[in-house]
Amino acid sequence: QVTISGTTESEAKVTINDFRAIVDSEGEFSYTFVLSNGENKIQIKSRDLAGNETQNERTVIFSP
Questions:
Q1: Burial 24-56 (b: 16+ CB within 10 A, else e)
Q2: What is the pTM for the complete model shown?
Q3: pLDDT tens-digit profile of 24-55?
Q4: Which residues neighbour 47 within 8 Å (Cβ) at sequence distance 6 or greater?
Q5: Are 22 and 10 in contact (CB under 8 A)?
């Protein structure tokens, strides 16, 4: 598992690979992502109330 965390606007919607992360009143979020063996692409999206979107992608390679 890996925990993805960050800060955004408090009213923003954050998704990690299309799963919604909870954003608190300070704009902080975290999400626990279960890794598969091999390459794992993690796409993080944040959309504010005005509809502006920021997107970031990371690749994590897991080998037990």
A1: eeeeebebebeeeeeebebebbbbeeeeeeeee
A2: 0.85
A3: 999 999 999 999 999 999 999 999 999 999 99
A4: 12, 13, 53, 54
A5: no
